[in-house]
């Protein structure tokens, strides 16, 4: 057995917050108890001194692009899972926009087999809503569920047809699968490449209005209400989306939602080279960059400060259920180009926890609520038995030094790609150890 002794245990799922000892036995949590460890226990077992550390459930990330099969030069399942472990994430949901798309049982089983070989994190596949994620013919959802898929999504592309989305929600509801939506009305997006507003006007770049997201969310909420299906809204970026989800939840619509660290840390001013809006960051912590930095380009785009604040408020009050990275690896050939031509997306597995803890230091989010949004909150979204330290649960545990400062150097990432908007930033909060089902899969010796 392994005794994690004397750390501050924060487990929102069991409403635990205090100095405790967590006991791991055979890949499961045996007990969380008062910190005393007897001499006999100390002699016969491994005891880890956790004084001064946070002891948290392994984090759950519902939105990760691992690129394998098909684009292993950007990321493999092994490198992505290794990066997840370094960031304290023990369970990831792998998006289906691979090559080939995960719209069949064979691809879903391949992803899981590769993850088992790597052993760093638990990788759960998401299946495509439509064949080839083309937004036309529905995939064989029953086959995907049987093969282990935990949700359905065409992430990266919206399902533009309301009729197709209605049928998808109806079939998914019968199977008990959530439908994750990339909400974007492409007729409003047009040639836009950043948030529509004063910053885009100043930079001379075509904008994407927040209404492109909000309109599709409103449509899909109506369809979810009509069908009784479970809708999950990916990467919320706009205050209007928060408002729509809040109103839908009040009506009893089965909707969950996630937000990314880049959307609650940065605004569209980052495209102009201006650093973070989170008050916890000093100027020396978040150095400015050159305008038109393509590492500030993502879909949906970074929005305004009022949008950022709406997202933080929704994380605090539970309207947004989960923090998810939308980890999207790209190589330099896709990022070292003109802003309008650059690929959308940033990597985030290794910075997500520290950026969320920055909200805690800024007084924008309570620590237990932050931990919940990273662990039991996302697990509840998809009905997963993870993100908790309750007895009998898988022994997924992380030890975190919440005050350890470190400088983000993408060249030292475990991820195969380096496209982070936080390069050169000083973050606080470092994962010291990560256990997956009782096995030590990451250790920081800094």
Structure report:
By secondary structure, the protein is α/β, with parallel strands linked by helices. The protein has one domain (58-385): TIM Barrel. 30% of the residues lie in helices and 22% in strands. The chain has helices at residues 39-44, 77-86, 105-118, 141-146, 162-175, 186-189, 198-203, 211-227, 239-251, 261-265, 305-317, 332-335, 352-361, 367-374, 376-381; strands spanning 2-11, 16-25, 28-33, 46-49, 54-57, 59-64, 89-94, 122-125, 152-153, 179-181, 194-195, 207-208, 231-233, 255-259, 322-323, 397-407, 426-436, 439-443. Helix 2 packs across helix 3 (105-118), helix 5 packs across helix 8 and helix 8 packs parallel to helix 9.
Please work out how many helical segments DSSP would assign: 15
- Provide the number of structural domains: 1
What is the makeup of the main sheet? Answer: 8 strands, mixed
Shape: globular
Please tell me the overall pLDDT: 96
In CATH terms, the superfamily is Metal-dependent hydrolases
Whole-number radius of gyration?
21 Å
Return the CATH topology. TIM Barrel
> Helicity range of the residues?
25-40%
Unreliable spans are: none
Strand content: 15-25%
State the oligomer. single chain
Quickly name the level 1 CATH class. Alpha Beta
Write the layout of secondary structure elements.
Layout: E1 2-11, E2 16-25, E3 28-33, H1 39-44, E4 46-49, E5 54-57, E6 59-64, H2 77-86, E7 89-94, H3 105-118, E8 122-125, H4 141-146, E9 152-153, H5 162-175, E10 179-181, H6 186-189, E11 194-195, H7 198-203, E12 207-208, H8 211-227, E13 231-233, H9 239-251, E14 255-259, H10 261-265, H11 305-317, E15 322-323, H12 332-335, H13 352-361, H14 367-374, H15 376-381, E16 397-407, E17 426-436, E18 439-443
Parallel strand pairs: 1-4, 1-5, 6-7, 7-8, 9-10, 10-13, 11-12, 13-14, 14-15
Antiparallel strand pairs: 1-2, 2-3, 5-16, 16-17, 17-18
């Amino acid at each position: 057995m392994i005794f994690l002794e004397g750390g501050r245990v924060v487990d929102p799922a069991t409403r635990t917050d205090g100095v405790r000892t967590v006991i791991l036995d055979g890949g499961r949590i045996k007990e969380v108890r008062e910190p005393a460890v007897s001499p006999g226990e100390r002699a016969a077992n491994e005891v880890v001194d956790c004084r001064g550390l946070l002891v948290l459930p392994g984090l759950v990330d519902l939105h990760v692009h691992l690129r394998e099969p098909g684009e292993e030069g950007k990321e493999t399942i092994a490198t992505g899972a290794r990066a997840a472990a370094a960031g304290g994430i023990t369970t990831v949901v792998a998006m289906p926009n691979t090559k080939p798309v995960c719209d069949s049982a064979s691809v879903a089983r391949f992803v899981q087999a590769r993850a088992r070989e790597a052993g760093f994190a638990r990788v759960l596949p998401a299946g495509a809503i439509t064949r080839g994620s083309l937004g036309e013919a529905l995939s064989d959802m029953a086959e995907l569920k049987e093969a282990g898929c935990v949700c359905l999504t065409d992430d990266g592309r919206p399902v533009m047809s309301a009729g197709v989305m209605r049928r998808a929600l109806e079939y998914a509801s019968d199977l008990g699968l959530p439908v994750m939506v990339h909400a974007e009305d492409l007729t409003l997006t047009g040639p836009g490449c950043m948030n529509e507003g004063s910053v885009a006007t100043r930079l001379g770049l075509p904008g994407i209005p927040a209404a492109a997201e909000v309109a599709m969310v409103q449509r899909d909420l109506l369809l979810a209400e009509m069908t009784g299906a479970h809708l999950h809204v990916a990467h919320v970026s706009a205050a209007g989306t928060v408002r729509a989800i809040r109103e839908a939840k009040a009506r009893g619509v089965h909707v969950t939602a996630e937000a990314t660290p880049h959307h609650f840390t940065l605004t569209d001013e980052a495209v102009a080279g201006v650093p973070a809006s989170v008050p916890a960051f000093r100027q020396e912590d978040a150095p400015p960059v050159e305008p038109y930095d393509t590492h500030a380009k993502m879909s949906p785009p970074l929005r305004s400060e009022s949008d950022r604040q709406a997202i933080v408020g929704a994380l605090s009050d539970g309207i947004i259920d989960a923090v998810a990275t939308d980890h999207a690896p790209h190589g330099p050939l896709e990022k070292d180009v003109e802003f309008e031509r650059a690929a959308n997306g940033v990597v985030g597995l290794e910075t997500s926890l520290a950026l969320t803890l920055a909200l805690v230091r800024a007084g924008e989010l309570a620590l237990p609520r932050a931990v919940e949004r990273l662990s039991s909150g996302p697990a509840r979204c998809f009905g997963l038995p993870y993100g908790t330290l309750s007895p009998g649960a898988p022994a997924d545990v992380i030890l975190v030094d919440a005050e350890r400062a470190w400088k983000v150097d993408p060249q030292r990432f475990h991820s195969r790609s380096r496209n982070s908007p936080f390069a050169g930033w000083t973050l606080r909060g470092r994962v010291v150890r990560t256990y997956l089902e009782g096995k030590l899969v990451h250790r920081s010796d800094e």
